[in-house]
Amino acid sequence: MVMIARRFNGPPLSGNGGYVAGVLAERFLAEFGPTPGAKVQVTLRKPPPLEKSLTLRQPPETEVLRLMDGGTVVAEAELVEAAGELVEPVSYDEAVTASKDYAGSVGHPFPTCFVCGPEHPTGLHIFAGPVPGRRGVVAAPWTPAEDTSGPEFVWAALDCPGGWSAGDLEGRPVVLGRMSVELLNDGEPLVAGAPHVVLGRHLRTEGRKTFTVSALYGPSGEPVASAEAVWIAVDPKAVRPEGAGGADAAGTAGAADAPGPAGATDVVRD
């Protein structure tokens, strides 16, 4: 069983995509183990509901793990090739300067987002702003707390900076559709209380889809993780889980494709 606590929202009524993907990725690795040369990719099919018991299911003869809300697939994880690009770093001071121009300080489509929402009282407060002289690149400082230093928070931290690298999210709101993360520090935990730097870079936009990469650097400037993501343009008011009293968001990553983890023994195998 998996439950996404209300604290970890993205849109007001659903889970933050990066955090939910990170939780599912950890469950996937606990079930199947890591594979050299591969990384976990998570596709979000529906807005993840909050404070609801979700189940894990493995389709027959696959190494795919699905997060289920009853009979509905919310998200699914699988392995993909680890090849990817790493966003070039900036110094911590440069990230602090960039964050001062964070576009989400005003006109944020989801101002209570756990990762980047200025109105979330206990969020990560990763406010990625444009890096001077580097088109399409944003950066932010981040100091993980003791309760936000687990591997799922690496995914969360890498999430929103990618979205903000796309530019005008007030005029063109997007939500995470698919994300893959490569851990570059042998899976070592984040250093709580130490300064980190997160960057995002916009690659391209094709119709409703936006493609980005992001990277997380540790206190000594060492690369901690990198990510690739696909984002889907949405109407913010429509991003609601099924049964949440509004229109369903039609699968944030379905369009892209056409409390913490429990033990691995609760995976249902079809």
List keywords for this structure.
single chain, 270 residues, alpha+beta, Porin, eleven-stranded mixed sheet, 4 helices, 11 strands
Entry summary:
This protein has 270 residues and is of the alpha+beta class.
- The total of helices stands at 4
> What is the CATH architecture assignment?
Beta Barrel
Order of helices and strands: HEEEEHEEHEEEEHE
Strand order of the largest sheet: 5-6-8-9-10-7-1-4-3-2-11
Largest sheet: 11 strands, mixed
Using the coordinates above, name the CATH class. Mainly Beta
From the alpha carbons, calculate the radius of gyration and give it in angstroms: 17 Å
Low-confidence stretches: 246-265
Residue share in helix? 10-25%
CATH level 4 superfamily:
Acyl-CoA thioesterase, double hotdog domain
Given helix and strand content, the structural type is: alpha+beta
CA-to-CA gap between the ends? Answer: 16 Å
Oligomer: single chain
Region (Disordered): 241-270
Biased composition (Low complexity): 249-270
InterPro entries: HotDog_dom_sf
Protein name: Thioesterase family protein
